[in-house]
Amino acid sequence: MRLAFLDDSQQAEPPRQGLGRLLALGAVIVPQEHVAGYAADLVAIRARYGIPAGEEIKWKAPKGSFLASAGADLITSLRHSMLEAAIERRIRTVVVMVDHAAAYTSYTEAEVGREILRWLYERVLMHLADHDDIGIMIADKPGGGHKEDSRWLAETLQLTSDGTEYVTPGRIVLPIVTAHSHHLPHLQLADLVVAATTAAVAGRQSGLSLGPLLAKLVHRHKPGDATGAGVVLWPRRYNLLYHDSAKLASRCRRRIPGSHCHVRNGAMPITMAWP
Q: Which pairing describes strands 92-99 and 231-234: parallel, antiparallel, or unpaired?
């Protein structure tokens, strides 16, 4: 059994040239035997940095919190420690995102969210198939209270019952469920991974500096299969560790080693495996 913990992120104004608003959804996939272990790791990490027991670890700490007033060195060290512990626990990650200024521009953010949820669901299933395992997907509880939670869950039922056009159901054994990230350290890790990856694609140093650690966490599907790499950006392809972009599909593999380019629905999603 593997548990996939989901969270979302966005970058409204990416500094990287040519990018519009980024909307992302990702998962950290935890083997059952490491679920309790990573929780214990985070307890020790919190104690090491003096983080109050009741405070949630967030990429953007709320005003007035311990982390909001902590120095940059502590925050950087904390993030490194969380990712290093995840690497030791053989946790793997998948992140998908849309440049909303270039794709699905007529969709609302919620409608885009449903599309990238499908992509994420597919890639979690690929990970489970690679390990001949089953899993459960647990998302950070959406805002808006119980009514909003019920609506969001209802929209996932058909997906989890019927699969998608790319995969068949069976390995994910329950509809996607939600939980408060305040109570689950694995959702706090998901917040870090998805936000850092989105920041890296956006060209922000806060994300780029974590690239080498994020690269060790990313799920890699079978060699040569473009559909299963651990970071997907639609519809453009960028090097996530540096600042050069793949401007033309014909140059994609040459300019960014390890990439895979393929056409779908008349557009070009380019799948990113961290170098």
A: parallel
In the chain, where the domains are located: 2-35+92-272
Cβ contact 186:38 at 8 Å: yes
Contact 200, 210 (CB under 8 A): yes
Q: Please name the fold of domain 2-35+92-272.
A: Nucleotidyltransferase; domain 5 (3.30.420)
What's this model's pTM, rounded to 2 decimal places?
0.83
Mind listing the pLDDT tens digit of every residue in the chain (275 residues)?
999 999 999 999 998 777 889 999 999 999 999 999 999 999 999 999 999 988 999 999 999 999 999 999 999 999 999 999 999 999 999 998 898 988 889 988 888 888 889 889 988 998 999 999 999 999 988 765 566 666 666 666 667 777 777 677 789 998 888 888 988 999 999 999 999 999 988 888 899 899 889 988 988 765 544 444 567 777 754 433 332 333 333 444 433 333 344 433 333 333 443 43
| C-alpha to C-alpha distance for 72 and 147, rounded to whole angstroms | 38
